[in-house]
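User: Continuing from earlier, I have the next pair ready.

Assistant: Great, send them over.

User: Here they are, in order.

Assistant: Folding the first of the pair now:
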Amino acid sequence: MASSSGRRPGAGPGGGEPSSTPAPASGGRRILRTQTAGNLGESIFDSEVVPSSLVEIAPILRVANEVEASNPRVAYLCRFYAFEKAHRLDPTSSGRGVRQFKTALLQRLERENDPTLKGRVKQSDAREMQSFYQHYYKKYIQALQNAADKADRAQLTKAYQTAAVLFEVLKAVNVSQKIEVDQILETHNQVEEKKKLYLPYNILPLDPDSAANQAIMRYPEIQASFHALRNTRGLPWPKDHEKKDDADLLEWLQALFGFQKDNVSNQREHLILLLANVHIREMSKPDQQSKLDDHALDIVMKKLFKNYKRWCKYLGRKSSLWLPTIQQEVQQRKLLYMGLYLLIWGEAANLRFMPECLCYIYHHMAFELYGMLAGNVSPTTGENVKPAYGGAEEAFLKKVVTPIYKIIEMEAERSKTMKSKHSHWRNYDDLNEYFWSRDCFRLGWPMRADADFFKTPNFVLNPRDQTNGEHRPAGNDHWMGKVNFVEIRSFWHIFRSFDRMWSFLILSLQAMVIVAWNGGTPGDIFDAGVFKQVLSIFITAAVMKMGQAILDIVLSWKARRSMSLAVKLRYILKLLSGAAWVVILPVTYAYTSDNPTGLNRTIKSWFGDGRNQPSLYILAVVIYLSPNMLAATLFIFPVLRRFLEKSNLKVVALIMWWSQPRLFVGRGMHEGAFSLFKYTMFWVVLLATKLVVSFYVEIRPLVQPTKDIMKVPITTFQWHEFFPHAKNNIGVVIALWAPIILVYFMDTQIWYAIFSTLVGGIYGACRRLGEIRTLGMLRSRFESLPKAFNDHLIPNDSKRRGFRSAFSSKPYKKPEDGKEEDKIAARFAQIWNLIITSFRQEDLIDNREKDLLLVPYCKDREMDMIQWPPFLLASKIPIALDMAADSGGKDRDLKKRMNSDPYFTYAIKECYASFKNVIYAVVVGPRERDVIQKIFKVVDDLVAADTLIKDLHMSNLPTLSKKFIELLVILQKNNKDDLGQVIILFQDMLEVVTRDIMEDQLTELLEPVHGGNNRKHEGITPLDQQEQEQLFTKAVEFEFPVKASDAWKEKIKRLHLLLTVKESAMDVPTNLDARRRISFFANSLFMDMPKAPKVRNMLPFSVLTPYYKEDVLFSSQALEEENEDGVSILFYLQKIYPDEWKNFLERVDCKNEEELRETEQTEDELRLWASYRGQTLTRTVRGMMYYRQALVLQSCLDMAPENDLMEGFRAADILSEESHLLTQSKAVADMKFTYVVSCQSYGIQKRSGDARAQDILRLMTTYPSLRVAYIDEVEETSKEGEASKDRSKKIEKVYYSALVKAAVTKPDDPGQKLDQDIYRIKLPGNAMLGEGKPENQNHAIIFTRGEGLQTIDMNQEHYMEETLKMRNLLQEFTKKHDGVRYPTILGVREHIFTGSVSSLAWFMSNQETSFVTIGQRVLANPLRVRFHYGHPDIFDRLFHLTRGGVSKASKIINLSEDIFAGFNSTLREGNVTHHEYMQVGKGRDVGLNQISLFEAKIAYGNGEQTLSRDIYRLGHRFDFFRMLSCYYTTIGFYFSTMITVWTVYVFLYGRLYLVLSGLDEGLATGRRFIHNDPLQVALASQSFVQLGFLMALPMMMEIGLERGFRTALSDFVLMQLQLASVFFTFSLGTKTHYYGKTLLHGGAEYRATGRGFVVFHAKFAENYRLYSRSHFVKGIELMILLIVFEIFGQSYRGAIAYIFITFSMWFMVVTWLFAPFLFNPSGFEWQKIVDDWTDWNKWISNRGGIGVSPDKSWESWWEKEHEPLKYSGKRGTVLEIVLAVRFFIYQYGLVYHLNITKHTKSVLVYCLSWVVIFFILLVMKAVSVGRRKFSAEFQLVFRLLKGLIFIVFISTIVILIVIPHMTIQDIFVCILAFMPTGWGLLLVAQALKPAIMSVGLWGSIRALARGYEIIMGLLLFTPIAFLAWFPFVSEFQTRMLFNQAFSRGLQISRILGGHKKDRAALSKDDR
């Protein structure tokens, strides 16, 4: 390699790389994911910027960077060796980015060769390397080995790795120079051995040295688990396997089944920790037990295998868990079974989403395991049984996981081509449910490649897939299709999933209409005739049952191949049964009726008269209802139903078969009797109220008008009537009843909102929410806070007298009790002060507030009294001094004050006691102490006699106080030079006391105290005698400087505060967030929560955060970068959080921003400060790492010696000093808590030099226990390429699931701070097959630990005080919450922290807050239908890892992935609870566009949920009332929202029909036709939803509960003033559009909303793109309807009713059209308007094409908008055309209302109008073609042609006005008639795009569409431009948008423009 002469690198192996790799330009360029610039190595991070195919050289480059500072030549040689190795790995530079990388590295080597050669010390490179290697070995390895403390294992591990790389380089250098390396070789062999042992570890260092030395390994529970796994006695090892001495059970499983090494390491640690944590909880004496507890083993085993055993029972198979008869082997066997399951799960990759598929694999592998252990012999070979897939390297991955993975991958590929058609591909659920049938065993073991499961249709395979790889199954026409359920886009799913609810509502409606029609009072039902008619509802029920049966068959058709015969038979029998009842019930009804009419009479004529058998129909009904009666019986006895559903007996299965198909999930979900009673009563009362109101307010008032309408014959019509002789005016009846019926189906949602608000409020009050909501309340309850703290947060393992007594001033009864109480008091101080310190670190409070809020760390033994935080006692002493001084000997006022304010008394007592304490501590002279004692005795006697004020001269007390304060200042400094001042101050104080205050009481003391001054004139006393007699004159009489302990300093500081703080601390803390948090924490201590166990006994848990590409940490550049208004993020944050900015500057000791920029450290602090206020990963990680900090402290308090507690040691001290206690506490915290951030693209980001990767690494370095999991995409040489020895080796992509941690370095270590791999588990392929977030969670879940798993999103944060309650929360898993089952998901409330940004953010925050508090409170209890909503819920980890994980990942259908985890948990007999004593912060979207994107995403998700199997199963498996809860709290809310909008449409189209047909006018003449009231009620209900009252009710209740009802009312009024109703009406349109669109055509997709600060102006074109289809088109349609109604309507002209009925509709129109501009910052600024118009014009006129994005061209956007139509199939196309037909009604109706057509109603008029339309379109087409063909060559002719067309058009208009008298109104009406027609034609054309394109008209359609868009744009733009002329409009908008911020002193006007002007002014001044 390199020689002593410094051979140039160009002559490296392979003939020199430069010839084959030309050097790029000096600047370099970025090739996709890898950095290839020539500046390689300039940053410390360069060793990571390596192409993925060269990852092997990264460790060498790391070492080069590490040694660069100490020896540049060695660094050069390392890089040279790295270059050579890179060339060997990829000689042809075929890998992505390799050529550029090698060139850049070569350039650097050429640059560094000469300078480093000159600096070389030794004669040759080899000797230089040898010398450096020896030096490194001695300095690092030997020094660390010889150190007494081996705790720093990480340093040693790193040193061994570095030494190994150095030796590798030395060997390469030594090829050409044969120097002696024997000694080094021996050293290297030792290093290699140690390197294998000292691997980077996650939590447990399992090497032999660490097992003895590391704190965590010394815990008995870890030792017990560790040794249990080492028991390999009696296991048959494979013959070719070399058994190690320290081998364990998992290694044996690896050798047998071929698991990956890192998977084994990962699961080894997982299993040890799992067993250890359960073991310690089960042990009564933990420190004495060294053997693993069998009971603990059984607990874990039961949880792990519960689902597997249930699966075996369900399929009628025996479990493979066979235990041996020999007792000694049982534990080993159990551990083997558990280890095998975890190893399968750990390597299963995407198969983890298919829990029963894992059961299948495990079933066979466990059977093989049993066979080998039992010594079974194979009948075919005669040898011992071996695993089917052998134990070769990666055998399990390649032969078991990969074939199944390939099927998932191929089906996922189909989902991309099929887009919206879920029925054409199998998702995760389909593939998993294949294993719910016994047919799955046909798959065999080993699995057959030709099994049904592996068959896929031929047409799906891409050409590259046709070459059938080893594991890629062949295409096959016999695709097995969907399994159990087919997701088909249809609104019918809503009926099918919740058929019982719709049946109930429809039958109730029918019954009410019959009763209202026949009398109108409910009592009429007892009339025999009416009752008989009411019974006809069962005929309707039978019809619906048959409809349901037909629906089932139609919607399940594509799953027929996988259906069992029993299910098919059931569907057929259901249909036949339904058809039979549809015949039987009407026949028996007609047969037994008295006076039949119509169809009944016909039926009766066939069957004869049955009046004598009236009970025949009743009998038929009873038989028909018998299944329902059985269901009702089972409902009353849920235990019985649970037993029947869970039973696997064939008899029971046969009984249950008819009611519902037998499924693996959805069995036994019923709640306990009390829960059942609660939610049943909720719904019974609600439904009763709803039906009563509907009957009296909606239905009954409509009956008489309906009868009147049906009697009035109308013969004259105002249009061409196709059915002039139709009876009963049926069209009018439909138009009248349709909106009422829609409201009837929707208003249950309103009643649900009202009832849930009331119930939620009552529940919240019962849970003691809002008891402490202000600082005043906190003060009043602070006395009881310590007791509550003790009751909940202190482990109670011995009998204590209670915490309050710890603060009691009563004498101690037992010294040992007193000690215990003092210990508790000290613990309270630690926790409280930790919280306050965290507030300071977060800059919520300043230093002064911190001092006022802290409590003493320990109780002062000499004082024996309560010491409250100074903020409670502030200003009390100065007030008391003033009152005493002014008392004049009367103590009435002072006593009154002391009685009314207990803290007043506490302050006085404490100050007096501390005063005594300090005086005694400083004065040591015996005479002086004696005098002082006498003085204090007098005072104590006067206090006891209650005559203190009367007997002492209190007017001089302030003088004494002033002197004492001066003394305290000196004592704080504690400087020996101040002794003289101390002596003088004591003399002064003595004089004040004896001569001014206590002159009368101390007469006998005066003489000795004042020496000779009081003598009579008996001559002059000698000086030395005077000095001897006087007090406080000598230094020896004082102990000064004082020996200052922490407790002493604290005492002096506290006393000084109490004496000097004169202003009241009523507003401490001043920060609103600090107030909220401290109040909530205090309040939560009075709420019901489980007792906290000791940290060592708590349930262990992990936190998992998925991360993709969001902000990690704001860069300095991002903070400074200004938007178009001159506003930077930093400037914005300074204005939003002014107090926190001030506190931050104080904390870092800087005066302004410029000072911050001076040092790198303070600039980093600034970046962090800003990032903690954005929605960044840094904020989330800091919050979650509070868990560890809290656990370390709590563990310290659990284990701390009493003496330490009594001395008042600070939490901060023990957390910073490396003490034995701290080491132990950290070890316990590591056992209990793991935090994994799944940074999906971290590997790619790292290799591309992305700043986010460096920020993530920085987080790992800041928090050493943080772990990052990522999917590493690496290019590797395939095995075939290696085998062929071909120079052009085949490169293939390989994926790994990797876990890394920071490679911790000491501050003086020259190395760089980098990460290091802990585990790398190979994946079968790319993990990202389904939805991104759940796939990201799934790959990382194997690295989590513990029994709880908290899922935290990237926009969440946590608080120190809340993390302290985690022990309590986890205890909820140990108790049953409904008497039936343990919780599987613990719900936690959230605080939305983005509410203060703007009014929109405030609305969103309030809306979200009400959902995450009162909403979920009611869902969890009483309704029992809370699911998982992406909130900080905590999962029972073992329950969910065996049942498919914490989310579902199928593409599109599981778009709202989180809620499916809740569905899955509930269906699998889980239990979801909600707890409100803990809260986690969450950020929300803050701008209208962000909010709309978020709401669109949620609406998309709900649309997909509607189609899902989970909702279908919940709707069918829940009992009736729980099913109602499920519907109205999931998809029902969105469907009701849609019905609200439909109501407006149906009402207006009904009116349009009445108005245009002339029926409205005809009926208006009849006086009896009055039907306003029910319509008003219906539309009022619609308005109730539209204006957001549905949201406002729970919102107001929650604000009222937690902040007071006066606040709630003022907030509500303020929200209305800030146009909250506009916001909610607009949101209504968003939800409706996207929900409906998803059900009709699909197109659902994840939409990134962005989490930035939104104070920027959105351009008009951007708003137009976002809202055109969802709001603008619909708004214009409604506006046209209202205008037509206004012009031609008759009924309500001039009536108040018209205004009332149409007001909400006009409000909706205006809102939908203009809200985006109203809520757009600077939306009415003239300059912005001009810019927007230019931008919009450019966008609308740009041509589209391939690669042109929708935001650049209207054409591209327009094509993308109707793209979902392409995939929606025939059904979607037909439906779209049917819906478009409504736009043709206008033309048909309006052409007959023209002045020129009023005399004829012929159909020819309508036909002529179409001729006009086609003529206009033809002319437009001609002009378009003419422009294209003639405008260049025949320009004049073309102009003349256009002129001629214009003249003809004007002439036609004039002729029409003159001859047939057409009016101006006619022209306007023609526009109203023809414009919708054109739009309708456009919609039809888009639906029929392939046909239109085939005839060549698509260009014309596009041109027409562009014209419409321009008209719409002008319609919207004109009013905005007009308003922008008036400056006050913009000012009003700014005030309205940012009022919330204004009220907190925010100058938004400056933010939106002034900052720029300020800077401009500054620059002008500079000039």
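And the other member of the pair:
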Amino acid sequence: MTHNSLIYQLWLNSLVLLCFLQSNAVKRDIVFLLDGSDNTRDGFQEIKLFVKSIVESLSVSESQDRVSVVQFADKTEVNFDLNSHKAKNDTLNAIDNLRHKGGRRLNVGAALQFVRHSVFTSSTGSRRLEGVPQILILLTSKPSTDSVRGPAFALKEHEIVSVGIGVGNANLSELEMIAFKPGFTYKVTDFSMLRSIQSQLGATLNMNKDTEETLNGISDLRDIVFLLDGSDESRNGLPAIREFIRRTAEELDIEEDKVRVAVVQYSDDPKIYFNLKTHRSKKAIIYAVRSLRHKGGRPRNTGAALQFVQDHVFTASSGSRRLEGVPQILFLLTGGKSSDDVSGAALSLKQIGVLSFAIGMKNAKQEELQKIAFSSRFVFNLPVFGELLSIQPEIAAFVKAEIQTEPPTVVGKKDIVFLLDGSDVTRSDFPAMKNFVKRVVDALNVGENKDHVSVVQYSRDPQTDFSLNTYTEKQDVVAAVQQLNHKGGSLLNTGAALDYVRNNAFAESSGSRYQEGVPQILILLSGGRSQDDVASAAAALKRDKVVPFCVGTRNADILEQQMIAHNPSYAFSVMRFDNVGSIYPQLVSLVKRVPRQQPRLKAQNVSAVQAESIQRDIVFLLDSSDEMQNDFRAMLGFVERMVEKLNVDEDKDRVSVVQYSREPNVEFSLNTFQTKQKDDVLDAVRGLRHKGGYPHNIGAALQYVRDYIFTSDSGSRLHEGVPQILILLSGGRSEDDIRTPVRMLKEMGVISIAIGTTDADTLELQTISHEPNYAFSINDYEELPTAKQDLPAENHIAFVSTSFVFVADSKKQDVVFLIDGSYDSRNGFEEIRGFIGKIVESLNLDENRDRVAVVQYNRDATANFYLNSYSSKNDVLNSIGTMRHKFGRPLNIGKALDFVRDSVFAASVGGRRAESVPQYLYLFSGGRSGDDVRGPAQSLKENGIKTFSIGTKNADTLEMQTISFTPAHYFHVTNFNNLQSIHPSVEATLRGVKETTEFPTVIDVLYINIKSADIVFLLDGSNDMRASERQILDFVREIVKQIEIGPSKVQVALTQYSTEPTTDFLLNTYSQKDDVLSHLSNVNLKGGTSLNTGVALDYVKNSVFSASSGSRAQQGVPQILILLSGRKSGDDVSGAVDRLRNAGIILYSIGLNNADRLEIEQLAHSPQAKYFIKEISDFPLVREQLLSTITSHKDTVTPGVDKVAVVQYSNNAELSFNLNTYNTRDDVLKHVASLQPKGGRPQNIGAALQFVKDKVLVSNAGGRRHEGAKQILVMLAGGRSRDSPRGPARMLKAAGVVTFAIGSRMANSAEMQVISSDPNYAYSVPDFVNLSRIQQSLMSQLTQMGVEEETKEGKNLDYLKNY
């Protein structure tokens, strides 16, 4: 050995030793989560001394113990992060300087969730991913005001060790729930006693290595296989290999239910030394490895060995738990190049999810190792066997680290039938189709006992080119595909072709192996829409367990493709078959993941005899978010008992189960189990695993079950008149909007029953349920087993089970009116009294029914009467009639909201929240609040109080929307004299009818204030609309009546269309309203059999919205198109819609009769610009909503008009006001002048940029990118970002957003360059006081942009401020 190599070896050994010592040094990440509520103000000094005494006992440094301190009350605030201080003295000084946070409420659950998401993270210094123990020390002085169950469980799931310390009135059972394990809780009577537990807590923290392993919780499960080169060439390497395995095994938690290990040697052939279930202890493994003998032999067939471990070791019979989701890890140790090909076997291992490490020594080839390894990071190429030990620590660290695995896949035999569109339409595409089939076949493992392939072509009728049992060799299949001739034919009968392949191609006589459980897969390539029905044929395929994939060109009907496909994600769309390569990898991956099926017999045709018993399709929608982990078994128990009571059979009751959290996941569909297979359903329910995830998106889940479960393809019998029943089990409030999916489910006749815990929102449950009394509230899902009372059973629901402790009674309501008693409302007070009186008239007032209270406010709030003051309607009305205006200023809405929460909705004065009675607050405001409303408004929502706000033109829109339960619960009136116009909507809200799901912004009914617009009505005049002709024309006439017609005001045009469009009158035809109405009274629908909406849209753009026809687009007048359509267009509409948007024309789409929902949504300018009319009574409501939207629509691009939004950010981003909040410069400046700093740390600029892209520069928030408006972001930063802004900045640039970045001296200049769209758009100032220095330059660039755009589209400016 040379001198240099000796030095290198010594250095390497020293480095390994140093790494070993460092890895074994005590390291902990410790977070103190301190009660900062008003309750701890007097004891805060004692708390600080206690924390300091604990820190004194730690070894604080960057490489050892790290410390963070967080305070919480109603909100959570980081005092310093784990990486803020690197020395003990700095940490102690920071603790000395802590200031008490303050706050009335104590939201422990929210605080636990906060530290998990925002403190125990890599960006803030956590080393959890390095295996460093994560410790949370919680100190609290009273019970939590929110639920701790879910967040506490999530901490344990993330292996964060929580220690609970309670002082005074702290809830010990709550602390025990939070604590990592029993014994990790401490309770003292007062703050001075904290020092008495110091030594106990110190002993808990100062643990040896064994204890740390205990803290880290249950060891991760692993199945590990060592595949060793036993050829003659590697004989000298055996000692190093044995030591490598021994050391790795020493560090693993080897037990039957934890880590399992196998060893295989190979040369010309492989040999199992011991498999995964041979040894059940670490000691046995190490002993077996020590006695390992070299196999010997030549040549070295690594490819065959890889295939062997897949077929014989990574199998359940050998002890593999791959199908249970346990990570499968392979370590290949080889001394040279393989004598056979490794590519196929290596790819096959990757496809079943095995994480392969390729460790080469001596003569191993790098390219071969890279083929074998799961990732390039898993390749090691060492010069000699002896260096194996140098990489052992890194290998062991990986094995012990958290491994994310995909769901297990099953690879084996498959029967695959290609069904090719052979009609005339695909003649030119046929070579591309054949090439695609050949590519897919190339990726398969074709063989006699492996994959079988068949090809069928079809047009009017189908024909088999070759069957599943025709060829057993891949080259023969490929050659047969190459020789295919295009079939030809004018018609495309996809339904008949699907029936043909089910009965013939997937028949046993054609080579199908369905009786052996071999997956049956259909790949359909289609170039057009079917001329026959596909629904029944597709459903029959799925009943026979055939898994269809669909690939369609732009001429194919995507909805038809999704109907045929196994699920919608198995339907692919390409422009032409030349582009099919773009979806090839995804399709092949999905095909290979189709699991093996249970051996079965073909489903027999079931006779259509009506069953004697009740028929029902029942879907259980289960909350499986992180918070519901502990309740999940109880939920399954409930489902199980329900199923026990059902008569499960194809012609009787059908059952489906779907789990949801962030997104839904179907466990089984309504047609999965049939023919009296109740036991199969019960087994499936018992075998369900908790999905997990965050947050609760109930709206998305409801939309999913509507679109994909209550469908014929999934077994729904809706069109046969079978009742459709949805049972929702929820553990929390939805994070997304539920209103539209709820309405759509009700429209299709689904009966929804909603069951929620106390953390669920009662009003939300009632909104979801078919009727409010179908909503049930329980304390805990553990109560479900005791349930005995049946749910409502009239007509649709003749089943089930359960009674609950608290049942929300829809016949009871607590209603509080909070009235502006300041000078702002004095002129409208009589109207407010009359409005409230009218609402009260409609209520059922009684001590055990509805209760009412009235409160007035200005500087402070005063109750006129409470909820329990009166028990008769006459007494309430008399009191309202004699009520006097309070008078005074200022207007403190925040204070008033707190007052009604604490003093009016209270049980002592008649509030019935504890009985789950719905509680409503109606706020009337004639001006802007003089105090902060955000905290009180949030508190009302947390208490389940549903707030509706009614504001005049002097009220602040954003403030009203903030107070309201959702922004849609805000009603605007010009002044209180117009209150009566909103009475029907408010009354409907209280009665729980349809208007509760979608509240129109209120308008002045007598006259609509549209100053100037060009409005074109485009009516579907086809024969299908004749039955609705009178209602359609009345709809147009009523809109015209409510707008002011004139050359300088609103102009109107009318066009009809079917096959071709026809203009009834143009924008400049009439200048008087009477003339327009006179013409409309003589209009009849034109008739016609076909409907070409795309042609009609292009026609109105080019011939009606033109200057010669009266369009005033060049003068900046808004261009509005109102389309009424009754069915899906016969031509393509997408191009025409884009052309309208590019021209700045705002399109409102209204669907009637058989209109296609997706097309109506595609046509609409924005999600809020689409409407559906299902029955005659909907016309007035849609008209009101449409006029309201047009009147208040702030998204319409007015040429030369700029829009402004402001966002503040620190650790998260917060919207101050949106692009569509204000229409005038004065309003914007007024709001900017009143802005208060958001506060918070650290600065996450990346997250803020992402927020702006996703939430601000979007159409539903006022963004006008699709209308050509320039998108501009001005970002101000006072320091360096804690997260990376690179990705979000790149995405903003890709979206065409022009970003200016302004940084103070503490900001990172390189970061500013990355964020800005151009280096010239990055500015630097010493501090923000000096912003005026760059103002002129910035304004010059903004002005120049406006000139370049000729100021015709306007600009969207978003200001992102760091506070």
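Worth noting for the second one:
DSSP finds 42 helices and 43 strands in the chain. The two ends are 62 Å apart (CA to CA).
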